[in-house]
Every structure is written in C-alpha cells, then in structure tokens.
Amino acid sequence: MLGSTHGTLTTDSRRARVIACGEPPAPAVHGRPADVDDLDVGGRPLYAAVPDLDRLFRPESVAVVGASDADGRPNTGITRQLLAWAERVGARLHPVHPTRASVFGIPCLPSVAELPGQVDLAVLLVADPLPVVEELAEAKVRFAVAFASGFAETGAAGAAAQARLADAAARSGVRLLGPNTNLNAFEHFRDDLEGPAIALITQSGHQGRPVFALQELGIRLSHWAPTGNEADLESADFISYFAERPEVGAIACYVEGLKDGRSFLLAADRAARRGVPVVAVKVGRTETGARTAASHTGKLTGSDAVVDAAMRQFGVIRVDGLDELQDTAALLARARAPLADGVVVCSISGGTGAHVADLATRAGLRLPVLSEAKQAELHQWIPEYLSVANPVDNGGHPVGDERGRKIIDAILDDPAVGVLICPVTGPFPPLSDRLVQDLVDAAERTDKLVCVVWGSPVGTEPAYREVLLGSSRVATFRTVGNCLAAVRAHLDHHRFVRAYRSPFDEAPRTTSPSFRKARALMRPGEQLSEHAAKQLLRAYGIRVPREQLVTSAAAAVRAAGLVGYPVVMKASGARIAHKTELGLVKIGLTSASQVRDAYRELTEIARYEDVPLDGVLVCQMVERGVEMVVGVTHDDLFGPTVTVGLGGVLVEVLRDTAVRVPPFGEDQARTMLTELRGRALLDGVRGRPPADVDALVEVVLRVQRMALELGGELAELDINPLLVLPQGQGAVALDALAVCR
C-alpha cells in the first residue's frame, strides 16, 4: 500500500474547490478578501492564498481509517507510529475498522460516519481512498492523508483515478495530502532545541532524511510536509503556510515537479515579502533527470532554464545536492542579517588560507583587503613576515594562547567585515581546540557571521561534536564548498530581500488600449506575416522601420521613394519563417531599377518555392546597432515567458539568452541583460558607441505587457533582429514572427 513513486495531476484543485463549493477566496496578503483588484489581466490571482494547516500538523482529534493491531500487517506498524505521534501532539485518536472491536486497546469505530463530533485529521490506510474521501464531508473532517499508491505515477489510468480523487476532495471540502505520501509528517520532532527552525517539504520522503537528521546536530526542525502526488495540497500551499509561521527561519524543499507554476511563484512571492528564505533542490537540470522525475512524479518538471530563472526571479535559492540543502538551509535559518558583505578568511596555514580565498573569490564572495591600520593591529600578535591583508595567516602558534581571541575580535570589529570564515583542515590539539573555543566565544558577542569548516573526516573530536555543534551562533560545515555556497546564498538572500518589490503589486489589472488593437490582428491557429506581426508590435508602441507593403513593381518603386533610399525588400507571407535562407530578402537597394528587379526576383522565388505572399515589403534600411532578440514563448508549466538575448544569426549559434516569467519589473529586465555572456556588446566594443540599453529595456517591458495580455492567444513571438541603436537613438524591430494559439 505504501508506494515508492509519486504522481501529480496539473488540475488546480483549489480553483475547483472554489467553483464547486462556493468557498470565498482566501485573504490576500494585505489582509482583505480577494476582489477584482487581486486578479491580473488574465483573471489569475496576484496574491497567494494561505491555507490554514494548523490542524493538519497539530490536530486535536485524529481518525485512522484501516487501523490495525494484527501481527504482520503493514497497517499495524503505521497505526503504532500514529498512536505515539498523537500522544506527543496531544490528539485524541479514533481507530476506524469495519470488523474490529478495538485496536491497541482503543475502541474501534465501524465507519467514518460513526466518528464523534469534529475530527481534524483522517489518515487513510486503505487501498482505495476514494470512497472514504466521499464520506468525509458528512463527518466534517478537515484534512485527510492518503498513503495509497497506484495513481498518476502509474500512467493514464492512474492519472484518471487521481483526477477522480481530487474532484472528490474538492466537492467534500476536505484538504487532501497525497495520495502516495508517507509517514514523514508524523515523525518525532525534538522539542528541546531552540532558535529559528527549518520547515521541510519533500515529494520523495527518503530525500528529506538528511535534512531531518540535522536535529541530531542541534538544528531545529518544526514541520515536514511529504506532498506525494499533490492531488490537492501542493508544495506551494506549504511554502505559503510556513512563510507565515513565526518559528520558521527557512524552508527547505526537495521538488521533482511543480503542480502549477503560477501557484509556486505566488508562494515564493509571499515568502520573499516575509523575508523567509526558500532553499530548493529541483530535479530536472539534465534531460535524464527530467525524464526520470517525470516517470517518478507523473508531473511537469518544466523547462529547466525557465524554472531556474523563475526561482532566481522570486528569490528561491536553488541548490543541487542534499548536503547543500542541509547546510544552506541551516545557515539561512539561524544566521542574522549581515552587517556587511566583506568576507575574511583566517587560518593557521598560509596554504589553506590562500586556497580557501581563491575558492571564495571564484564563488562570488568579496574579500576586501584589510586597511593598513587593521593590518598593523593584527601584526601586534602575528609575526610581521606573515600576510594579514586577507586572507589572514595567523601562523598557528598565536591561536594557542590569549592572542587568538584578540586576532578574532580585531577582525570582527572591522566595519567592512560581515563574515569570518575559519577553515580547520584537521584537528591539531591543543591549538585547534583553543581556536574553536575562541571562535565560539567571539561569536556570542557579535552579530556578525562566524563560520568554521571542520575538515577532519572523523568527526568524533570533542572540539567538533561538543564545542562547535554545541554553539547556536557558529555555523559549522564539513566542506569548504558547502560553506562558501551557503555564505553566498546568505548574502544574496538578504541583498534580495532588501531590494525586493513584488512584481505582482504592479502587475496590470486591466487590459490596455493596445490590447484591443492587437487582438483584432490575431488569427487563431495561424502564423502572421511579417507585415502583420509588425503591426502587432506597433500596437504596443514598439518601433519598426518605415515600410510599405506593395503588390506590384511600380508600387515598390513609389514606396521606395517615400521610404527613402537605401531600402530593404522582403517577401511577406504567413508561411515564410526563414526568408534569408530562401533568398527572399534584398538589402542595400539604391535605385528604382534595382527595386523593380528585386520585386520580380522575390516574387519569382516565392512562386518557385510555392510560398504564398501577401505582398512585398519595402523597408527603411537601418544600420549601426547591436542585433538582439526579444521574444515570447509558452512554457507548459509557467505559461508565457519572455526571452532576451543576442540576435541575428548569433541566437542560434551562441544561444546566449536570459528568460523571465511575467510579471516582472524594470529591475529584472535590466538583470536579464547582465546575465548575457555578450553583454559587453551593448556597452560598446572596438570603438563602437554604447547601445541604447534603456530603449532595449523598454522593448522587453512592452513585450512582457503583450505576453500578459495576449498570453492565451499568442503562442510565440520572435523579434529578431531587434536593432539597438547608439545611446539615445532607440531600438528598431527589423523583423518579427508571431504565431497565434
């Protein structure tokens, strides 16, 4: 009955619940009921609803449907664990079984209908939870957990069964965890640990074990949500809930696939507003990983480039391994906000310090050179021949006496220093023991972050097990790589939170006049001609060259005179995607005779290639700029996405692009440009003037508006090339392709 694989439908069961039951929308982040102002131009919510999950994790009464105490039965071990858990959380437990008078000495009820009064949680230990879920509404049960497997993870038939289960939950008003989940929510959480806690969300229960084990190192965990197939409750629901919990310092997630991209971003937005870090392992970076995750979860992993960009956009810290998830979540949960971003490496070995400093710089950390005054101060206790500029080589012996603490305090007292990293490559008593104790004592008197990398492979030394792990103020790591990654995430998170402005607050609530003009140009299921695609751009205020569509050589000559020589001539038709390859573009035409000849040649090629035309475009020739591409594509998970990158032929050769999920603001549009490897081209290279970056950003934002308003009707938009002219001169869309849904 307990499965080892998961599967999730893409059904929005929360929306189904509202429609089926007339449930009012949950309060928005501003504490008022959702109304039209809380919906975007597509009628989608702009704020994450926060489900009240208190009674899921801390119920007052629990029904165990299918409870057993028979020897050798799988349900017996589960029932025993639930009994112990119910006792710990102070819940009354009601066994339910049609043929048993009692279970473990507790009177057993024959059916759900016999449950006494309000029951907060029903745990379903049955092979087919559907009939039971349908009975729970009359019993007024608030939450249910379904362990059974054999749903969406098994294929089409299982997906259909899961859809029926989700619909039943929506009709009943019961919030369902699972199916195909496990016992992780009912683990024994230590209650003797203090400080901010980690809340854990996993789709695969086994993958959460390393984070759960952090309790043995003194790091508090408050919740574990094993989401399973997510027929109803999904990762986004738990992120939103945990972000509001005062005891939660960080949210750690293991995600194989997202049920709904929009819900995930709304939840991440809520966490960002609250300043609660979300650290996630997201499977699917490679084709193999994505394929395996799809078979394991039965849900969308999404394009990894889009998932990665969306997470960065909303401050979700993506890590690759479970060890990184442990270390990064633990640091972010417990560390205070940094007072400065300067990092100092201090070691008892010059070689160790140089190595770690090199790795830290490569990891993107800033290692400031300490001032001459600070270096002179350190040289009171450290020999003059040792470097103390940063990294600080203390030479070893000074940390074996009172000088060690003075060195540490002097570094931490520097206002440019926010983080001290001390790598201890191996135990070297008594020096290492004295050093560790001094670091712990110093950490107690400062608000700055003190990190120790304990490099011993043994890990049983008292300096590590008792002193370092006994401190709630020192962040202790076993590898340099994880330490540097966690510190970088810590600094980036607080920098992100300080600057965060939710894009959902500024997302358009109503369509613009541009939308009405653009919609009249749409042709469902068809590709637009270049001429029509450019009209679409014009509707949204995106500049295109002067041009005219003509259907005769004589008209082409007249148009060239009006446009102004030199001109470009291009065949225009809805079925033309690659005009240059077919020879359907002529550039640099400077006379009437060249225009007439070009018209005849273009129409003859089109006739030969059997390409229908709506005419020939006579266009202004625009030169001297940087060729970029700006586009819209539809992601199966997140919907419309906006891409910017190097254009022309370079887009296919270099694939140098950045992507964002609307809505986003100007700051994100500018950040997209910094992610491009070819960003220097916009700054001006080899004597060329800087490009008009402001104009490029404006085009990206106008294209985003188009994506938001036409997302349901626009399958693809490709502006390539968008010629970004020298600074102050704007940007011109030289070509465009648009495909309607």
From TrEMBL:
<keyword id="KW-0436">Ligase</keyword>
<keyword id="KW-0067">ATP-binding</keyword>
<dbReference type="Pfam" id="PF13607">
    <property type="entry name" value="Succ_CoA_lig"/>
</dbReference>
<dbReference type="Pfam" id="PF13549">
    <property type="entry name" value="ATP-grasp_5"/>
</dbReference>
<dbReference type="InterPro" id="IPR003781">
    <property type="entry name" value="CoA-bd"/>
</dbReference>
<dbReference type="InterPro" id="IPR032875">
    <property type="entry name" value="Succ_CoA_lig_flav_dom"/>
</dbReference>
<dbReference type="InterPro" id="IPR011761">
    <property type="entry name" value="ATP-grasp"/>
</dbReference>
<dbReference type="InterPro" id="IPR016102">
    <property type="entry name" value="Succinyl-CoA_synth-like"/>
</dbReference>
<feature type="domain" description="ATP-grasp">
    <location>
        <begin position="534"/>
        <end position="572"/>
    </location>
</feature>
<dbReference type="GO" id="GO:0046872">
    <property type="term" value="F:metal ion binding"/>
</dbReference>
<protein>
    <submittedName>
        <fullName>Acetate--CoA ligase family protein</fullName>
    </submittedName>
</protein>
<dbReference type="Pfam" id="PF13380">
    <property type="entry name" value="CoA_binding_2"/>
</dbReference>
<dbReference type="GO" id="GO:0005524">
    <property type="term" value="F:ATP binding"/>
</dbReference>
<dbReference type="InterPro" id="IPR036291">
    <property type="entry name" value="NAD(P)-bd_dom_sf"/>
</dbReference>
<dbReference type="InterPro" id="IPR013815">
    <property type="entry name" value="ATP_grasp_subdomain_1"/>
</dbReference>
<dbReference type="GO" id="GO:0016874">
    <property type="term" value="F:ligase activity"/>
</dbReference>
<keyword id="KW-0547">Nucleotide-binding</keyword>
